[in-house]
Specification:
Helices cover 65% and strands 0% of the residues. The protein has 4 helices and no strands.
Length: 101
């Protein structure tokens, strides 16, 4: 499945919950989505607090999916082509020189 198809499914879900309505308690603004993305990323990190290995793989998968969904939504509402942004960043990173540890 492509990012475009995943974004469409994400929009259908958000629409079905009424979160695009102006009176929604979960307004889909860039600021709210960026905050939610950071919160979900912190929840990913919780799975590694005090350990180096994953002990609850299904729960981690759910948190990773939450991060991805918020990322897709944030890219969409800010009109960023995430596929192109990723390709551009990968190409840029190919030209970077990474310091040795």
């Amino acid at each position: 499945m492509t990012l475009t198809e995943l974004t469409t499914l994400m929009h259908q879900f958000v629409q079905s919950k009424g979160w695009y309505e102006p009176s929604s308690p979960k307004v889909q603004s860039p600021r709210n989505l960026a905050a939610s993305l950071a919160i979900e990323a912190a929840e990913v990190l919780e799975h590694f607090q005090w350990r180096e290995t994953v002990t609850q793989k299904e729960e981690l998968a759910g948190e990773l999916a939450d991060v991805a969904l918020y990322l897709l939504q944030l890219a969409s509402v800010t009109e960023i082509d995430l596929e192109q942004a990723i390709l551009t960043k990968l190409a840029h990173n190919q030209t970077r020189h990474w310091p040795e540890p």
